[in-house]
Specification:
Blueprint: H1 5-34, H2 38-64, H3 84-111, H4 115-145, H5 149-165
Helix pairs in contact: 1-2, 1-3, 2-5, 3-4
The protein binds hydroxy diiron-OXO moiety.
Hydroxy diiron-OXO moiety binds near residues 21, 51 and 98.
């Protein structure tokens, strides 16, 4: 079944969101490195690469279905980091925005009886759920250890170790 023009343009728009997420995490990696949060810097670099993979997955899906995939326009994200808790809370918000877009895409696919695209998008449902849980978990951890002393140092180290092993 051919992909409807409405779905094609919505998927192309979503490619832009994944690209934004990739750039955002790249900018966060740089900002964390500047703060000497080297574990977080490593973690966000890996997150950025993951988001690019998400972008490419949609890109390939469109091309395989004979739809023109568009390359999103990008501007460099402006990021300033305050506390580590605020950092992860901002990431959670960003992930929730992407999740909301996935929901809109699925609603559209189902309304047009495009069950193949609906099936394709279920991977993103699981992925978004995983990422929201990841950032909620990090918010909980930083809340537990607090922002000062050795707690935050050890947390940064453990975040970096998780990025290296994933
Ligand atoms: Fe693309 O997984 Fe989050 O945003």
């Amino acid at each position: 079944m051919a992909i409807a023009a409405k779905i094609a343009s919505a998927l192309n728009a979503h490619i832009g969101l994944e690209a934004d997420a990739s750039n955002y995490y790249l900018a966060l990696s740089s900002a964390c490195a500047e703060k000497k949060w080297t574990g977080c810097a490593k973690f966000f670099l890996a997150q950025s690469a993951e988001e690019r993979e998400h972008l490419l997955k949609i890109f390939r899906y469109l091309v395989e279905n004979n739809v023109v995939a568009t390359v999103p326009e990008q501007k460099a994200p402006a990021v300033t980091i305050g506390s580590m808790r605020d950092l992860f809370a901002a990431c959670l918000k960003s992930e929730q925005r992407v999740s909301a877009s996935v929901t809109v895409l699925i609603d559209l696919a189902v309304s047009l009886k495009d069950y193949a695209t609906n099936h394709f998008l279920q991977w993103y449902v699981a992925e978004q759920q995983e990422e929201e849980q990841l950032f909620q978990g990090l918010i909980d951890e930083v809340t537990l250890v607090g922002e000062g002393g050795t707690g935050i140092y050890l947390l940064d180290k453990s975040i970096g170790a998780r990025a290296a092993s994933s």
